[in-house]
Amino acid sequence: MNALEIKDLTKHYPDFSLDRLSLTLPGGCVLGLIGENGAGKTTTLRLILDMLHRDGGSITILGKDNRENLPLTKQDIGVVFDEVGIPGCLNALQVGKIMALTYKNWDSRGYQDFLKRFSLPEKKRFQDYSRGMKMKLGLAVALSHKARLLLLDEATSGLDPVARDQVVDILLDFARQGDNAVLISSHIVSDLEKLCDYVAFLHKGKIMLYEEKDFLLGEYGMVHCTKEQLDAIPREAILHKKVTPYSAEALVKRSAVQSGTQVSPISMEDLFIYMSKEAE
Question: Residue 182 pairs with which residues in a beta bridge?
Answer without folding.
Answer: 30, 150
